[in-house]
Amino acid sequence: MSMPRSRRMAVMLFSVATLLLAATAQAQVVVSQVYGGGGNSGATLKNDFIELRNNGAAAVSLEGWSVQYASSTGTTWNRTNLTGSIAPGGYYLIQQAQGSGGSVDLPTPDAVGTLTLSGTAGKVALSRGTAALSGACPLTDANVVDFVGFGSAANCFEGAAPTGTLSNTTAALRNGEGSIDTQNNGADFSVGTPNPRNSAFVPADPL
């Protein structure tokens, strides 16, 4: 017995809505902070790190995702694969390479990699895949969820300009506690004191 037309339409609309909701939730995961001065001269923190925030209303699985890094004008992308999930309104901390200095450990990371980020300028991509990106500016890659060009020397970035140039004691912090995303790195990020937040961090204004 065939399904009544009205029911078929209802099922189709529900399926489309579900897919759109999933896509929207995934699109709401952004890079909320980048710090490459860990362990360098004058730094307090021992490690570089990349931080994510989920600005959506549903948890998002990060299984099969990665964060990838290239130098400010580079075309070679190195990556850290991710696991687990990120809660709505929550953060996800990815510890990276440790320098020889610094005196303070990061909060317990949600993922650990070995990427050595520049303390001043570079490029970070959040990808839905684990295959290495290619080229100097992979903004059109279908797997790229978010992209941050940090520092004035970066040759690829979202919007009109990269973030400000960083230092051993400053990070690129997405405005609004990580919630502002106008697709313009220069406007969306401020340069300030690193503030690493992991999945255990409780936001002052959760979604």
Strand content of the residues, in percent? 25-35%
Quantity of strands, as a count: 12
Poorly predicted tracts of residues:
8-26
Gross morphology is globular
Which percent bin holds the helix content?
A: 10-25%
Question: How far apart, in Å, are the first and last alpha carbons?
Answer: 45 Å
Figure out the total of helices: 2
Structural class per helix/strand content? alpha+beta
List keywords for this structure.
6-stranded mixed sheet; single chain; globular; alpha+beta
Q: How would you sum up this structure in a few lines?
A:
The chain is an alpha+beta fold and 207 residues long.
Give a structural overview.
There is one protein chain. With 207 residues, the protein is an alpha+beta fold. The protein has helices spanning 5-27, 185-188, and strands at 29-35, 47-54, 60-61, 66-71, 78-81, 85-86, 91-98, 111-112, 122-127, 144-150, 171-174, 189-192. It is globular. The chain starts with a helix and ends in a 15-residue tail after the last strand. 43% of the residues are buried. Mean pLDDT is 90; it is low at 8-26.
